[in-house]
Predict the structure.
Amino acid sequence: MTYRRRASPLHAARAGVGAVYCAALATCALVFQHPLILGAVALSVLVAAAGAGVAHEVARTARFTLPIAVLVALVNALVVRDGLTVFARLGELPPFGRIDLTVEALVYGLVLGARVIVVVMCCALFTAAVDPDELLRVFRRVSFRSALTAALATRLIPVLARDARRMDDARACRPDPGPRVAVLRAVATSALDRAIDVAATLEVRGYGAARAGHRSPGAPWSRHDVAFASAAAGIVVLSVGARIAGVAGFDAYPLLSSPVGADELALAAAVVAIACAPFLDRRGIER
């Protein structure tokens, strides 16, 4: 999955704001374990993905993550001994001892798996709808070639893998091979050295110069920047405030406790409304 510029409010917002918006949704999923709130965040991500034109990419990523979520649920049910509602007794299984499967452990594993899926969906939305080049240019304020160096270091992974294999073969031919940590250190050092050298060369040739169609980090904020920044702040404040107030609590052990009342319903509705509100304004989405 790669980024492609589309006509949407999220694509029209600056990359830093889009990244903060996706991070706010992921933060909400990490703050709460209540299934209703996790469902609200998942719905918000799907609506945002549809509004940004990347629903197919986000849904495909969620399908790929589903086996991992199922594995998390099964492992939790097999490993965790807490919970009072036993639904299966598997007997003694060395070296794990007696294994009794409880409803609480299974449900909590499903909640953990659902949280994994939601967080991965937030990351998929970030990957598909936030311009990575524009986001890396933000780091130029920290260091002149830091963004370009980081990008090149990841692009050189195939070359570094070949270097690692050659170094490992050379190490194995020595009478005293020594630890593999030395190979890892040499490869990491080579990655940074090569990335810095290539970045310096490209900077000299004007690669990092501003080009037409690219927004400067110091450009005035647009309506979409303000809308998504406000939505991100609203989601974080609402999540932290609700958490402090004890709304949408969830306890799996020793018995399941997941209240669904007016407060939980209002919180879920507020998360969806705040997350989806920036997509209502579709003016100026072409840039």
